[in-house]
């Protein structure tokens, strides 16, 4: 069963985005798989330190102007919302029928990559503070943070959040032009981090 922290946060994000329309269509990856080594994320918690090689596939979002890599054996769905196509992606470590996932099998990993519209535009600090208020209101605790610059030279902030049920979730918040890019997930935090850091 999908952990409560990730589901409650993602339902909040997706509910804003799905107000107009919600249809999900599978997407074919673009490019050839490449071998990569998973870089360990600096951590204050007990994240895995093993760094196995993972075959990656690159996906290019030409509409929004960014790309990312994800494990080749994983499944990628494109989330299409009204006239904003695509508005985001859902990546899972297992194969399933196309569509937004409501349950995660034991040991599964799930990642959402969402282009989010929010005012004020292009103000990452304000966006982050808004998110922190939402986490605090839900009883979630920030247990790790990191500032970084993505490959597209956009500033980003990583947060590891612990929910009231003890589960941990991963969040990367960044700007994409005047809008915002949110990567969130739970499961294998190291592989989620690998996908998030590949954004450019």
Shape: globular
**Rounded Rg:** 16 Å
User: Order of SSEs, N→C?
Assistant: HEEEEEEEHEEEEH
Derived from helix and strand composition plus strand pairing, the structural class reads: alpha+beta
For the termini, the CA-CA separation is 32 Å
Q: Could you tell me the strand content as a percent range? A: 35-45%
Mean pLDDT: 80
Strand arrangement across the biggest beta sheet: 1-5-6-7-11-10-9-8
Question: What proportion of the residues is helical, as a percent range?
Answer: 10-25%
**Structure annotation, total helices:** 3
The description of the largest β-sheet is: 8 strands, antiparallel
- The total of beta strands comes to 11
Detail the poorly predicted runs: 6-49
Describe this protein with a few key phrases.
single chain, 200 residues, alpha+beta, 8-stranded antiparallel β-sheet, 3-stranded antiparallel β-sheet
Structure explained in plain terms:
- With 200 residues, the protein is of the alpha+beta class.
- The chain is 18% helix and 40% strand.
- It has three helices and eleven strands.
- It has an eight-stranded antiparallel sheet with strand order 1-5-6-7-11-10-9-8, with helices on both faces. The protein has a three-stranded antiparallel sheet with strand order 2-3-4, with helices on one face.
- Strand 10 and strand 11 form a beta hairpin.
- The longest helix has 14 residues.
């Amino acid at each position: 069963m999908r952990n409560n922290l990730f589901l409650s946060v993602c339902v909040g994000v997706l509910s804003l985005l799905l107000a107009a329309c919600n249809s999900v269509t599978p997407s074919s990856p673009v490019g050839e798989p490449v071998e990569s080594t998973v870089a360990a994320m600096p951590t204050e918690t007990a994240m895995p330190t093993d760094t196995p090689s993972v075959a990656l596939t690159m996906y290019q979002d030409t509409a929004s102007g960014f790309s990312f890599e994800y494990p080749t054996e994983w499944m990628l769905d494109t989330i299409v919302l009204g006239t904003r196509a695509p508005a985001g992606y859902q990546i899972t470590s297992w194969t399933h029928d196309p569509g937004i996932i409501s349950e995660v099998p034991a040991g599964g990993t799930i990642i959402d990559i969402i282009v989010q519209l929010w005012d004020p535009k292009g103000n990452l600090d304000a966006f982050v503070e808004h998110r922190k208020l939402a986490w605090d209101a839900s009883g979630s605790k920030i247990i790790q943070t990191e500032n970084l610059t993505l490959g597209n030279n956009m500033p980003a902030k990583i947060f590891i959040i612990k929910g009231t049920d003890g589960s941990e979730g991963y969040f990367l918040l960044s700007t994409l032009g005047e809008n915002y890019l949110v990567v969130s997930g739970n499961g294998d935090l190291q592989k989620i981090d690998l996908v998030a850091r590949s954004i450019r």
